[in-house]
Structure formats: structure tokens, C-alpha cells
Queue: 2 jobs
Job 1
Amino acid sequence: MIQSIDYAAMVALLRAAETKVIDKHEWLGQLDAYAGDGDHGTTMKRAMGCIETAIGASAEGDLPALLTDVGWALLGVDGGSTGPLLGTLFNGLAESAAGQSALDAAAFAAAFEAGLAAVQRQTKAQPGDKTMMDALVPAVQALRSAADGGLGVAEALDNAAAAAEAGAVATTDMQAKFGRARNLGERSKGSPDAGATSMSLLFRAFAEAAA
Amino acid sequence: MIQSIDYAAMVALLRAAETKVIDKHEWLGQLDAYAGDGDHGTTMKRAMGCIETAIGASAEGDLPALLTDVGWALLGVDGGSTGPLLGTLFNGLAESAAGQSALDAAAFAAAFEAGLAAVQRQTKAQPGDKTMMDALVPAVQALRSAADGGLGVAEALDNAAAAAEAGAVATTDMQAKFGRARNLGERSKGSPDAGATSMSLLFRAFAEAAA
Amino acid sequence: MKKFINDPDNLVSELLEGYAAAYAKKIKLEGNNLVVRATPKAAGKVAIVTHGGSGHEPALSGFVGEGMIDISVPGEIFAAPGPPRVLDAIKRADLGAGVLFVVLNHSGDVMTANIVMEMAAKQGLNVKQILTHEDVAGGPKSEPENRRGLVGCVPLYKIAGAAAEEGRSLDEVLAVAEKFNDNMATLAVALTPASHPSTGEFIFELPEDEMEIGMGQHGEAGTGRMKLKSADETAEIMINMLLADIEAKAGDKLLVLLNGTGATTLMEMFIVFRKVAQVCAEKGIEVVRGGCDEYLTVQEMAGFQMFAAKMDDELIALWDAPADTPYLTVSGK
Amino acid sequence: MKKFINDPDNLVSELLEGYAAAYAKKIKLEGNNLVVRATPKAAGKVAIVTHGGSGHEPALSGFVGEGMIDISVPGEIFAAPGPPRVLDAIKRADLGAGVLFVVLNHSGDVMTANIVMEMAAKQGLNVKQILTHEDVAGGPKSEPENRRGLVGCVPLYKIAGAAAEEGRSLDEVLAVAEKFNDNMATLAVALTPASHPSTGEFIFELPEDEMEIGMGQHGEAGTGRMKLKSADETAEIMINMLLADIEAKAGDKLLVLLNGTGATTLMEMFIVFRKVAQVCAEKGIEVVRGGCDEYLTVQEMAGFQMFAAKMDDELIALWDAPADTPYLTVSGK
Ligand SMILES: Nc1ncnc2c1ncn2[C@@H]1O[C@H](COP(=O)(O)OP(=O)(O)O)[C@@H](O)[C@H]1O
Ligand SMILES: Nc1ncnc2c1ncn2[C@@H]1O[C@H](COP(=O)(O)OP(=O)(O)O)[C@@H](O)[C@H]1O
Ligand SMILES: [Mg+2]
Ligand SMILES: [Mg+2]
Ligand SMILES: [Mg+2]
Ligand SMILES: [Mg+2]
């Protein structure tokens, strides 16, 4: 069980995310078709596809550089709404991780808080608005609570994944306030948000890799 | 039973044709869709729709003028392949009827022979080529035989209608050599030709009106 | 099929009214639904007249304007207009230098044209006819009567129209148009059927996993029904048939157009064009000019017509000459 | 859905290659799939840059050329490109007079644009952004964030591009573009669904007897699902919503465009345009310029976007100014 996230651990987390998302990408596309444009699956597949390149390009062993490279790779993808948000998240992680070679549970939570803050500079979406924020915000809160409660990174990620999943499922009955689904009004209800779902997959993959 | 075709009889024949064809136009469209472009029904409906106008416009009682007016009206319709052929047929009838106020069986047969000859200046299609000629040619021959055999116009038209119908039905297994169906080769077999069918409807309507 | 229409009997008159309203700067309606240039050509120049069924928009009337058609005579849906309106158009169009009458090889169009030419001769009109018949699916060049006129009429209007604007004589305009006509070829492929807008009925059927090469432009089926192929495979089959027909060889210059017939996206046509350009390049044939667009449609039929013509410097210059019509404008720069 | 494609992962690179091959005289690819003019604009003039997802061809890159866009940054199918390529485009485009960056209001496009603008500010680039949000289905003008950018970007490129070609400053180009932006409105209607070309799946469903007003341009549904209406009824509902939004009144002059989104025929659009012109005429509003075409498609989706903008003499002159792009050429005469 991983107790702190160093370069190798982060690589493992990223690869787990890549595998899980590519595995489930058709489902993500179907969720996005419900109220959006049906491309979240192909976009996430493309986004995850650049992670391995970023890993290969980044200086072996340098955790902040890895996070920066992944952030820029995600920004560089033709990523619709997803690319800017995910890229910004990882750039936020990278800034917070600057100068550190490994992150314990507290530093890891702090990094995600910084990532979330960066994302919140890009979007006004709040939990309840039926976006990826419905998964991201509770996941980051879970990381913080776990760290404050003295849990290790693995347990923290497990809690975060559970929180993200609950958040994603809860979007089912929400009415979208952001993104392409916004224009549907009431009709956006009835299916979970694609972006929240993919965010929960990322945390679940992280948790599994850290376990 | 009509024994010679004067102005009033011709008007009756034409109106009967109009009614019958408009009644069956959807079927004609379906036949044309099999190997053509599906518009023979709407085209025949449009063609027949101008007959009443031509009757109204032509000098009351003047048979050749009536035939000329109908011929020109048919030519004036946006008639695809049908308009030029039918218009030419009636112009041929008109020329042959020139100076006559009524046509007995012999004159009627002669008129149709003239009409057929005019049509044959527009198309090289022969019976067997899966076109309206498969109905028209035997119908004209039947008119001629009936007249030569001393039958009246009504019986002559009845024979002509039967011959046209047989000719139209026989097109089912033919391969089209003219018109839009030509490019289908073997695949044009299996359904009767639309134009031959509408030609047989015209003769049947004439026969019923003359009976 | 779902379409935005009103009374099916008024399709053509309504569409022409709307067309004239949308493009009032370029075209207008005259006489009995003739589509004429908003600003007529200068006197003394050869005029271009054409006729054909409607339902193929923008063809044919979309190309009325400077440098292309002077008067177009639109018929009913898929049905050529009768001779009287065409004759009227020819008389109106003549600016003293005669009229080139462009006819597509379809049974009804040709019969109308023959009657028109007879009447024109009787009336002493100065008109010459040119017949397009470039559909390679119909048969070899030696059997022109079997080859339908497909999208090739559109670039032919452009070539003839440009020659006419230059002030060439009727014989000269006819000659250059015939040169182009002799060197062009088209082949169509369909993926999904078209419906007749008056009847609402589909004109043909295609199984979900099949396509048809050699399709006509009114739903008349072709003879090349086969399993659905990739864009590259389809492109290769089709361009090779065209190159063989026009006997293109290394060093030749081509104009290649892809004409979408309805529901096929430009995205797909670009992908097909890419392969066409590659095949030509491999053979040392240069695609000097190209285009992907909807020039002549078949209602909502998914598919396209691939067109290729061998070009020389004269033809290229005429293709590049200015034109100003609602659906093809060339700046001439 | 049946489409002519090869590997679904290569759609965008292949379509761009084919596009560049077909229109080599007008556009070319540069850098990482940036679509640039074949002949760049003269130095010292403002450049126009835009970005957006692919799958909407001819938009956006079809309007690169003289008098419209200088560089377009095409993303993946329905997915806006990321900031780095856009930033690269802005740097390449700047000819010393700055860049107008045209952004359509869609979540991903806007987030990318915001990051681009932050980076550009850091790097001291001279770029101003304009956001189109003219979809009246999203809400009133007072809630611009709810209104999507639809086909309105295309005439806006034309207006801004013409002003830039005239040599106006960046502030002046932005000002006239904003004037146009403030006076335009669009509404979309769909009849049949679009399929995503990578997944082959339909993005939405519409019962055989229904249509949907207020549709987005990526298959995102609207809120106006209703029984199928005639062309005239549909036209009336839609134009009245647009006229209300732009507060058009008697004496006003309009540019009206009908943008086919895929399988809808020009025939239908002309029939709809006819009614639009009638409704306007009854209200004393003049349709001074019009157009029916596929400017911005949604794959094979049957339906159209109706666009209207209030025009003054300055805007009409800019609309009429010369342009030379693959999918919109204006002779300027
Ligand atoms: N403004 C926004 N703020 C937060 N999340 C957003 C926003 N817009 C979209 N999203 C998220 O992005 C997801 C859609 O991503 P994707 O399909 O890849 O992009 P696009 O909507 O551009 O096609 C939505 O399900 C939602 O979770
Ligand atoms: N060249 C021809 N000679 C004789 N009959 C023809 C010829 N071309 C077509 N036809 C007839 O016309 C019929 C089709 O008529 P119609 O559908 O009205 O015209 P189009 O083929 O122009 O759509 C065919 O079924 C055939 O009988
Ligand atoms: Mg999406
Ligand atoms: Mg027909
Ligand atoms: Mg027809
Ligand atoms: Mg998208």
C-alpha cells in the first residue's frame, strides 16, 4: 500500500487511469450523447492517450515535471471542455508539488486543493450544477479529511474515489447549469453527467493503483 | 356504343383518361420507382391535369383543334419523358384528323398510325425495349386490324386496350433499353414498365368511355 | 421521409420564389418561371441556356449568372420542362450572337431538346446544342447514348460561359465546350436512398451494409452494388475507372470535383479527395484544380459523384475566369 | 450510420489533407494542422483567427482566405482544440496590427480561449477576443452565457475580415464586429439525428413525426420538440422569434441566412426562405441580403439554422466586399 506519491507511484496512478478510461470510453460517449454531443468518450480516450507520451518525455524521477508535462499534454489535446479542465487541474497539482519529490497524504491533498482552485478560475460551476465538479469537489474534500484524520494516501484515495462516485451518481437527477447539456433544461435530468463520471473513474483508478 | 369519334366523344374519352390516370397515379409512381426515378405518377397526373384546360380553351366542336390543343398542352407540361412522347402522339393525331369533324374506325386507326409515326421520329424504342411503345404499338395495330375487320370504334378501342394491357404486362420480364431504367441492365426486370402501364390505362379509359 | 415542404404540388414554384428572394442581387424570375441573370450579359455575346428537372438544387438554376448560364429552364421535380418554355428561353437569351443550348443526356431532356431544336430551326433561331453524357457507368465512350449526363454539366457551364463572356463566337464557344465534354467523366456512388419529395416515398433501397457504384442522379440504381467500402477503397475504385475512361496518363492535368448528392458530409468528401489526389500523384497525374461541394444533388441521398476532366491551358484559364452566380463565384484573381 | 471514412481516429488529419489538396489555390496547412491562407494578407493589417471542433465542414476552416479568416485552428470532431495550437496560430497570424480572435460560445471553446488569452497577455501579444452567442433558444440577450454560438460566426468572419482588409485598426475591426454581433440572432431546427463519425452512434433521437426547434449544433437537443410542421409554419415560428430577439421593426434592413445542417435540401431551404421574406415584407422589414447554403453543418443532421442580422449601410458594404475563400467568394462588384 502506497504511503506517499513519488514519481514512480504517480506514473502507476496515471497508467491505471489511462487503462480504466480507455476501457470505459464507449460508455462515456453514450453518457455524453444523452444531453451533450457524444464525444466525451473519444475525447477522454485521446486525453489519456497522451499520458504515456508525457511520461516518456518527462525527466525520469522528477515528480513536478511529470505533473507539468501531463498538464500541458492535456491542454495540448483537442479536448473540448475536458482538456482545459483536466490540463488546468494537473498544472495546479504541478505548481503545488514544486520542489517536492514525493507527496504524503497532506501534501497530496494540498496539491489537489491547488488543482481544484486552478480549475475554479476556469469555471464557475459548483457541485449541484451537473458537471465534473460534482465528482472533483467531494473527492478533494475527501482527500483533505483523510489527511487531516491521519490516513495514508491509499486510504485517502479510496475515500476520494468513493466520494467522486457518489457525486457522479448524484448528478443523474440534476439539471445541467454548464456545458452543452445546459440548454436542455429539465430534459438534462435522467442520466449521470459524462464528465463527473470520467472524473470518478480517474479517482477510482488512482485508488486501485495505490491500494 | 360510340361508332365514330367526334368532338364530344373525344372530350368524353379524354375526361375518362384523366379520371383513370389520376386515380391510379400513385401506383404509376411506384412502378417508376422500381427502376426509374419514381415520378411517372406525378408527371402523368400533371399531364392529365392540363387536359381539362385544353378542352376549355379549344374551340367548341372542332375535333382537330381539340387534338392540337391537347398535344400542345402535353408538350407544355414539365413532362420528363412522358410529355414529349404523349404530346407528339396527340399532335400526330391532330395532323391526321385535319379537316375532319369525326373519325370512324378507319380514320381513327389512321390517326393513331400517324401519331405513332410521329412518336417514332422522337424515339428509336421498339416493342421489346420495355417502354410505353410496348403498349402503344400493339394498341395501334389492334385499332388497324379492328378497322380492317369492319369493327366499330368502340370494339376497336376495346381490342386496343386489351392489346396495350397485354403489352404492358409483358414488359415485366423485359430488360429496359431506353429511359432511366436502361442503366439497370438485368435489374430492370421484375416489374412492368411505368410508361407502358400508363399507356394501357389511357386505352382502357378510352375503351370504357366509348363502350 | 421528413422534409420541410408545404403543398407537394407547389414545390417548384415555391422553391423558385424563395431562391429569387434569397439571391435577388444575382438572379430573378422571368416569363414562366425562367431563371435569368439579374444583370443581363452585354449584347453581342453568345448566351448559354439549359433545362432540366428540379429537385437537384443548386443545379441547374444555381449557376445562372455572369460567366456561366444566362437562362435556366427548371422543370418539375425530376421531370424536364416541355419544349415551349425552353424555346421561349432561347429566344429571350439571344443577344445577337446565338445561343449554346446545354442538354444532359436523360431520355426526357433529350426528347424535349430535339423538339426544341426542330422548332428553333423552323423559326430560324441561331442555336447550337451540346449534349453531356459523361457517366462512365453507362458504358464506354463509344456508346454515348448509354451514358447519362451527371454533374459534368456544371463545370461545362463554367467553361462555355467563360468563353462566351470573352466574346467568342457561337462556333468557338461550342468547340471549346465540346473539347471539355470529350475529356470529362463522372461516376456516382450512393449509400442511402433519396425520397421523392412529392410522394414522400423512397425511390430505392440499399441494405444497411451496402453501397451502389454507378448510381444515377434520380434514384435510378446502378449496377455496382457491393459491400460498404472504406473511403480509400471507394476512392481508388472510382478514380481508376475515371482515369481509364478519359485515358489520363503521366503528365496530364486534371480538374477533379466531388459532388455531394445530399446527406454526405464535406468531411467524407475531403477524405475521399485525399485518396484521389494520392492515386493521381502516384501515376504522375497532376490534380491542378479541385472542388468538393454540393453542385447537383439528388434530394437527401447520401453519396457523391466523382468527376474528372483532362485540362489544357485554355481550359484551365476558362475554369479560372471570373464567374458570379449564387452557387459558384470565381474572383478571377 | 453509413459514412465514407477510413480509421475513425484519423478523421481530422485526413479531412484536412483532402481539403488542402482540393483547394490548394486558396488555403494550405501549416504547423500543427493550422489552416492558413495560400497567399497571406499584406503586412500591417489586422488578422482574424478562430478555433473550434471539426465535423462541421465547411465551417470553420472553409472560410479561410482573403476577406475572411487568416488562420483557423480546427480541433477534433466536436472538440475544440487545446490552447497551445491556438496560441501558435495567433503568433503566426499577427502581421503587426494585432489579431481578432473569434470564439463561439461553447463551454470547451470558451475555456480554451480564456487560457489562450491569459497566455497571450503574459507573452504581450496584441489580441482581442470576440465571443458569438446568438442562439435565441438559450435565453434572452441579457443572459449571453446561455446563448450558444451557431452559424453567426460565419457572417461575422465576413464582416470582420472585410474591415481588416480595408486596413482598419484592431479596435475598429473589433468595434464593427461587435456591432454586428449585437444585432444578430440564430435559431436551429432538426428533423433527423446526427451520428458521431468516430463512434458511428446517433447522438439523439427524434420520433418520425416530430421536429425539434432550438437544437444545438452538436446533437445537443433543444427545448422545442413538437409535431412536424409545414415549411411555412416552421418559417413563421422561427423568423418571429428572431425578429423579436433583434427587435427588428418596419424600415429595418436584414441579412437572412439559412444554414443547412446536413441532409436538408436547398429545395426545402428555398421554400422556407420564401415564407421568411413574406413575413418580413408584411412587417415592412426589408431582406436586403440573403443566402441559403451549408455553412456550418452537424454531420448528416437534417434541419437548418435560421440566421438574421440587422444591417446598416456600413455592415452591408462589408458584407458585399470582396472575399475569396473556398466556401464563400464574393466578387465585390
Ligand atoms: N463550464 C464547465 N465547467 C465544468 N465542467 C464542464 C463545463 N463544461 C463542460 N464540463 C464538463 O465537461 C463534460 C463534457 O466534456 P466533453 O464532452 O469532453 O466536452 P464538450 O462538452 O466540449 O463536448 C461535461 O459532462 C461536464 O462534466
Ligand atoms: N426514349 C424513350 N422512348 C420511349 N419511351 C420512353 C423513353 N424514355 C422513357 N420512356 C417511357 O417513359 C416512362 C417514364 O416516364 P416518366 O417517369 O414520366 O419520365 P422520366 O423517365 O423522365 O422520369 C418509361 O417508363 C418509358 O415507358
Ligand atoms: Mg461532449
Ligand atoms: Mg420517371
Ligand atoms: Mg423524371
Ligand atoms: Mg465536444
Job 2
Amino acid sequence: MSISRDDVLRWMELFAAAVAEHRAELVALDTAIGDGDHGTNMDRGMRKALERLGASEQADAGAALKTVAMALISSVGGAAGPLYGTLFLQMGSALAGNPEIELADYAQAWRKGLEGVQARGKAQPGDKTMVDALIPGVEALERASDLSDGLRAAAQAAETGMKATIPLVARKGRASYLGERSRDHQDPGATSTYYLFEAAAAALAG
Amino acid sequence: MSISRDDVLRWMELFAAAVAEHRAELVALDTAIGDGDHGTNMDRGMRKALERLGASEQADAGAALKTVAMALISSVGGAAGPLYGTLFLQMGSALAGNPEIELADYAQAWRKGLEGVQARGKAQPGDKTMVDALIPGVEALERASDLSDGLRAAAQAAETGMKATIPLVARKGRASYLGERSRDHQDPGATSTYYLFEAAAAALAG
Amino acid sequence: MKKLINTPDGVVQDELHGFQAAHGDRVRVSFDPAMIVRIDAPVKGKVGIISGGGSGHEPMHGGFVGPGMLDAACPGEVFTSPTPDQMAEATKAVDGGAGVIHVVKNYTGDVMNFDMAAELGKGEGIEVETILTNDDVAVEDSLYTAGRRGVGVTVLVEKICGGAAEDRRSLQQVAELGRRVNANGRSMGMALTPCITPASGNPSFELADDEVEIGIGIHGEPGRFREKVGPASQVAERLMTPILEDLPFSSGDRVLAFVNGMGGTPLIELYVVYAEVAKIAQQHGLRIERNLIGSYITSLEMQGCSITLLKLDEEMTRYWDAPVNTPGLRWKA
Amino acid sequence: MKKLINTPDGVVQDELHGFQAAHGDRVRVSFDPAMIVRIDAPVKGKVGIISGGGSGHEPMHGGFVGPGMLDAACPGEVFTSPTPDQMAEATKAVDGGAGVIHVVKNYTGDVMNFDMAAELGKGEGIEVETILTNDDVAVEDSLYTAGRRGVGVTVLVEKICGGAAEDRRSLQQVAELGRRVNANGRSMGMALTPCITPASGNPSFELADDEVEIGIGIHGEPGRFREKVGPASQVAERLMTPILEDLPFSSGDRVLAFVNGMGGTPLIELYVVYAEVAKIAQQHGLRIERNLIGSYITSLEMQGCSITLLKLDEEMTRYWDAPVNTPGLRWKA
Ligand SMILES: Nc1ncnc2c1ncn2[C@@H]1O[C@H](COP(=O)(O)OP(=O)(O)O)[C@@H](O)[C@H]1O
Ligand SMILES: Nc1ncnc2c1ncn2[C@@H]1O[C@H](COP(=O)(O)OP(=O)(O)O)[C@@H](O)[C@H]1O
Ligand SMILES: [Mg+2]
Ligand SMILES: [Mg+2]
Ligand SMILES: [Mg+2]
Ligand SMILES: [Mg+2]
């Protein structure tokens, strides 16, 4: 079993749908410890991404992910724009020209994406950011031996990571200004990252 | 029975006390159809008036009323400052040098005051202003044959005039901007004028 | 009520202390009677211009004292017109021998207090001319009202007359020009929220979460009517239509468009409104030659806006463009 | 939510249309990517200065585009930093051959997006220097935060660097000066009310009728703590004390004092606060040599204020005083 370009397109459609559906939730989470725009930002970006994906033929999965990356970078802004942009850009580069993406390739692409996000944002695990959902998700994929099971495990691990941000005090991003007052709130970026894994599981788990 | 300088001083003290007591009420009435300052204005003015009355010997009742007039003119502002200022100035002029003020003198002084207010503000009866309490009060005094009874009757007539402003549509002052929306509210200036007659009855009715 | 004040009764005094601390190099602030006077007043041979009114409309009028605009301003208590002795003192303070203009907004209290002051001024041999502003089309100008309120056009009168006085035009010329500005200017305002005077502590009116008040003045009074909140395009239409019909403005007219914030409305929203005003003006063939966007004549922290259109002539435009150097309005100086 | 807007998603576009209609004679507004550029850009031989940030802080930054201040501004969505392509385009548009300064407020999003833009700019052979502002003493500058936020000092950096660039100082000189301004400036803010972003429609936090939020930024985030509302003197004390201790400021220092409104606070209250700031400054022996009072870096319709103190040196003072001609800040021009 492998991942095709069309699988990736379906994944992005599902992610865009999830972000649109949860837009208000993401805004509410970001209102509590940030500036209340994460849902709007991601929704605007993913709508732009689908538009771009539809506007021209995507050579392969890697090219499609790069298109998404560029759409996000030029339309999201804020912290999420460069971070998600970098994630997809690194994944896209890792997968470029690969027509038959196997589990190992895919897991490695996520690893590259994670590294890109950390290089850009300097967040460590436990800083209460999207990284806290990203790391367990990627690690679950890396441990997996089956694509389908691996993606389900990754989504579950990301969800656990997302929930684990609740008791944390933020050390990166806007929420860090709040110090102790950032505790007891779920990180919006970790939440959207969980939706990204969920969408991957739904689209690619066959 | 006649009115002395000290009677007038007591009258002004009682009026100042009434205005202070009803400050919030006058503000609320003025908030509904004006700009919400009538209570504050009159209270500031009457405190200044008492201060000035206390600061130097008042030759007679007329002089005391002129002192009140000047204090109001220089401290109240708004519509009420010039109107009440003119009222007391005209009364003071009419009574100047008169040590034994009889009912007829007093009623005539009120008439002069009323004329001054109408000359300054151009309000006619029914325009929903202080004039609507002033006219019936003055007329009751003019009809009276006894000072004490006359003052009680005047206060009662002013009260009736004040209440009669409720159904009126304002044609002068700030409330007139509201047109039909000024209906069903009692005029603040007519209300403070009623308190002025009440204070007179309490202070001078012997 | 939450405000950045010390005590409700001390607001105006405290504000004047702040004004003095900030602008003591260019104005003289006096406290009894309260007035803000150009530091170099009286300017010999120049017509003096004073205005005054209740506080709570900042920057008007105190913020407009300086070269090219007012020579003095008399602040009353919040929403309460100042007293005659303030205006009489200010008149004396700015009389440079060429006479003094009183810019008076048409409110019963302002008119009566300025009248008394002018009587005093004349008594002392100072020639005084009054310019009465009454540009608010929300109020019917009839026997059944105190006449139209003076609102946005007041700012324009003060600027344009200030320019003319600086140019050493005569008392009659400046007064005539100011009256022409008033006669060619129309305004209307609306509120999204009421305001709260420090002394009352209560909202000036109650509005539901989806209602706006149309046809308000600048003292927190309720307006002519209320309606459900609509888009900015509808708000602009509501205000522009009566303005355009009233003068009337007609195709080809050159105008100054002034979108004013009521004190609590952020600039971003005023620009959104301005975009609509510009559209409507274009539809009517008006040429907006000058504009002013910002909170210049306010109603404490009220949210909302007013629109003023002034039909320009060459002289008005020239003196609008002339240098002005005040805390509230400044250019070319 | 009641606002003078058409649709929540269209606010920034609509505002830019208004800005273009109002100031099209002095700026060029482009919509894709969104930017406001000085009409005569690029100015040959002059260091170009751009800034950018989320919308909702007006007049910053778009209102500061013009001679003596910014060459271009890139507006993001409300409270959302703009995207790299905006800054890259603006960088190209203002490069007059002497290099380009990016004035960046220290927020994770702004920093990352500007970083990506600078990488692009460099790729095209344009020399770019970044000035990062981080003056908000409400935030601990430690490993446990994203560092201090850039707030009020940003306005001062843009004005002073703008003056220096107009004077044809080199890229390095302007950058060094801007960094010195930032290093010598400290700010802190407070809110009486939250704000509501058009997209969310909900208050950014809930405050009781007698509570204030101390240590807020400019994005409606909750602050460091809340307390019962006190008089303006107490508010000034709360903000001034951490500012004074942080640099630290000491007796004899010459300072610029900037009392800034958050968008919904009327000018009268800012002057009340300024009076208290002046008192406290005097008690500490500081000499306020320049001041700025008004709403220049805002948070939509939030009520509240921030205070910025800048320790002045001769060069800063000179370029602060230099002519500036923008919609939001204008003098001597
Ligand atoms: N330095 C960082 N590294 C990784 N993720 C970050 C960092 N800073 C912020 N984030 C993520 O970005 C999210 C906020 O995104 P968004 O609200 O769109 O941007 P902004 O904070 O600029 O408004 C946070 O919830 C967090 O997960
Ligand atoms: N032209 C007028 N003639 C007589 N009384 C008037 C006139 N205009 C206003 N008033 C009275 O003044 C009162 C308002 O006084 P006040 O609130 O102190 O002044 P302002 O309206 O300037 O705020 C009104 O209630 C009315 O009784
Ligand atoms: Mg956010
Ligand atoms: Mg009143
Ligand atoms: Mg009043
Ligand atoms: Mg944001």
C-alpha cells in the first residue's frame, strides 16, 4: 500500500474541511491565550490552498504539498503561516518526484517537516505549541509497520499530545506572555495539528 | 408679615439642600431628554452661591439675590446658568433696597424674574421648560392675599406645572432635538423650579 | 463606569493640568476662569478667534488653540457650556485691536452664555462678531426646536477662519467667511453605543446589542430614531442622504468630506466609512477635494461617527490649506 | 458585535479602499499583495524603511507612510502579521539603492514572516537590516517567553529612523539609531475593556465592571494580572513604576513621554493620565523634553492606555523634531 498524489489531494480537502468546521473552536482556544485568529488564519489559508491545488495540475504528491506550502505562506500570516508553510514545504521536498510513497518515505517526510518547524520556531517539547502534537504523531508513524494502522496511531498520539498541552505553561508564541495564566488551556496550534493527522488517517488509511 | 434678608438666606439654603438631595433625580431626568447634567449644574451653582453669600455681608434681600445670580452665572454654565442667573438678577433688582418685602413686592419681583427668563430664553408656555413651572407659580402668588398661603399655593401650582410638562413635546432647549421622543418625560428645569418654590414656601411661609 | 479619571468632579481640572504639562510651551492654561490661550496672544493687528463649549468633545476646542486656528478656548464642565466670565476673559486676552470672533455652536446654553459674554465684551470696547454653527441636519430647523445643533462644521469654521485671521483679514471678512462655511456645511451623526458622563455614571441611553441610534448630537442625547445595525454602506447612506438633500449638493460641486469618530470608534472603522462616503459622493458627481478623517469632535467614549460635507469655494480651500499648528490639527508648521 | 464595517472578512480590504480614496495623492495602495507605499518611492539614495503588522492598530503602520517616516507598510489581517511576499514586494518597492530597514515588532509571527521576507530580499541583492522592537516591560524577557513584545516604542523608532533616513544617513546608521531607540525605550499598557475582532465577534477577555487588566499587549490578549479599577493616579503609578525600574531611568534623564490610547479611550482621559505621568516623572527628576498624546498604536476599540518612556539623546531629539508628513503624524511639513 502506498500514497498517491490523489490521496494527498483528498487529505488536503479533508484537512480544509476540518479547519472550516472547527474554525470557531480554534478561534475560541486562541482567544483564551492568544489573539483569537488561529481558526480564521488556517481557514483562510486552506481555502487558498485548495484553490491553488485546483488551479493547475500537480505533478505528484510532493508538488501538491509544495503548492499547499506556498499558498499558506502567502495567505496565512501570523505564526501559523510560516510554521505550517515550512511543515508542508519540507514534506513536499522530501517527497518530490516520488510516485509511490511508502510508509517509511512518508514518516521520513513528516520528520523533515517537524525539523523544519522546530528550526523556524525554536520550540521544544513542552513549550505548549503545535510541536507538542507534532512530535508524538511523527514518532508513532516512525514506530508503525503498517501505513493504515500507523496513521491511526499517529492521529491518536497527536490527540494525546494536544490534550497534554492543557496543563502546560506556554514558553513560546503569544501564549507565553501570559505566564501562569496560560495554564489550563489547550493550545490552538496543537489542536489544528491534531486535525491534520486525523485528516491524514481518514484520507490515506485506505 | 414681610420677608427679610435672613428669610432669603434661609430660602437659598433650603433650595441648595433640595438641589443636592435631588441631584441624581435631576441628572436622570436630564439624561432621558437632554445631556444629563442639570442636577450637577444646579448643585455646583448653589454650592457656589452659598459660599458667596457666606463670604461677605449681604446688605439686604435684593443684594443677596444678586449675589446668588452672579454666582450662578459664573459657575453653572449650560442653559440653567443664564436662566436662573437672570431670574435671580431680576428679582434682586426689583427688591434692591427694600428692607420690608411685602407679598405684592415679592410677587412683582417674581414677575420680573419670569419676564427676564422669557426674554433670555424665548420660551413660551407649553414649550416644556422651566417656564412651565414658573408661570403658574408666579400667577398663584399674584392671586394670593396672604404671603404664607400664597407661597404654599405657588409651590403647588409649580408642581402641577412641572407634572404637566410630562406629556408635552419639547420646543425649546436640548429636549427639542428629540421631537416626539421627548414626550412622556418630565422636564428637569421645571422640576428644579418646583423645588425653588417649595424652598420658598418652607423658608418664607413663616 | 470605568474611566481613566481621578474623581468625577475633577476631570476637567485634571485634564487641563495635563494639557498645560504637555503644551505649556505653546499655550497658557488658566484655571479660574478656565481657558486655554495661545502663548503669544494677543497677536497685534490680528482678529482674535475664540470658541468654547462643554468638555468631553476633545480635541475640540482646546486642542485647536494655536497659530492658524483658535486664539483661545473656554472649556466648560463635561457637556456643559462655559460661563460668560470665561468668554469675557478670553475675549480680552486675545484682542489684538482688530476685534474678536466668537465661534458658538447652536445650543441654548452656549448661545445664552456667549450672548452674555459678548455684552460684557462690548461693554469694554472690544468689537465682537459671533459665528453661530448649526449644521446638523438631524434636527429640524423650525419654530418647534431650538434650531439645528452645531457639530462637525465647527471644526472646519475654526480652521478656515483661523487661516483667514492669520492672513490679517478684517473682523467682518473673517465673520462673513465663517458664516459662509457654516451655510455651506451639513452634518449628521450616529452612535453604536451611548456615552457615560463622569458625573452621572450612567449610560446616556440604552441600546440593544443589535441597534444603532441615528441622528445623535455630541452630548449623548438620544437621536432621531434607532434601527437594527447594518453594514457600513448602509450607515453611510443613512447619513449622506439627508446631508446631500439638504443643502442641496449637486453634481460638479467640490467638497471637503469629514468623517469624524465619536471618541470610542477606532480609525480602521472610520476609513471603512470613508470608502463608502467616497463611493456615494462619486455617484452624485461630487468631487472630494479635501478630506479629514479622525476623532475631532467627540462625545466622550461614544462609538459611532458623523459625516460632514462642506461645499468648498476657492477662499475656503485656500484657508483650509493654510498652515496650522495646534495639538489637534497640524500641517505646514 | 457592533462595528462600522461591511463584513468581518472584508474589513482590511475596505479600510484600504478608504485609505486609497483619502490619501491617494500621497500613497499608492496595492491590494495583492496588500501594501501602502509612499507615492514617490523609491527615493533614490535614501534608505527605505518599511514596517508591517496585523491590522487593528491604526494609525500604525499605514498611517505613518510618508516623507519623514515610513516608505511602505504591509497590513496583515486583523491582529495577524502580514505574509513574506508582502514584505518582499514592499522591500523592492522602496529600495532606492541605499538598502532597506525592516521595523519588526517582536511577535513570533511577525518575526518569522519578516525573516522569510528578508531572505527573499537578500536573494534579490537588496541589503536589508532589521530593527526588532521589544519594549513591553509587562513581559519577562526570558527563556520562558517569546521575549518582550514590541509596542509603543515602535512608533518612536519609525519616526526617528524616518527622520534619519530623510537626512540620508546610511543603512547602518539608521539601523544603529533605531536599535538605540528601542534599547532606550520602555512601555507598559492596561485595559479598561477588551476588544472584539471582527472575525471572532467575541470579547477578547471578560472583565468585571470594576476591574482593569494590567500589562496587556496590543492584540486583545489578557494581561499579566487584573485588579479593581483605581483612580488615574494609581493607573499611572502601575504603569510607570515597572517602566522606571527597568531601564532604569534616573534623575536628570531627558525623556520623551508618550501616552497612547488603545483605540476606544477619549483624549480627555489621556490628558488626565498625562498629568499623572508628568507628576511622577517630576518626582523622579526626569525632564520630559518631548511628548506625544493620542491613539497611535491601538487595539481596535479597546479602552485603556499605554505609557512609553524614551531616554533621549541629541540625535534622537533632532530626528524626532524633523519634518514628518503622514496621515497619522505630521509636523513642519
Ligand atoms: N515558536 C513556535 N513554534 C511552534 N509553534 C508555535 C510557535 N509560536 C506559536 N506557535 C503555534 O502557533 C499557534 C498560534 O497560531 P496563530 O494564532 O495562527 O498565530 P499568532 O500567534 O501569530 O496569532 C500557537 O497555538 C502555537 O501552537
Ligand atoms: N429656552 C429656554 N427657556 C427656558 N428654559 C429653558 C430653555 N432651554 C432650556 N431650558 C431649561 O433648561 C433645562 C436644562 O438645563 P441644563 O441641563 O442645566 O442645561 P443644558 O440643556 O445646557 O444642559 C431644561 O430642562 C429646561 O427647563
Ligand atoms: Mg493567534
Ligand atoms: Mg443638561
Ligand atoms: Mg449641558
Ligand atoms: Mg495573530
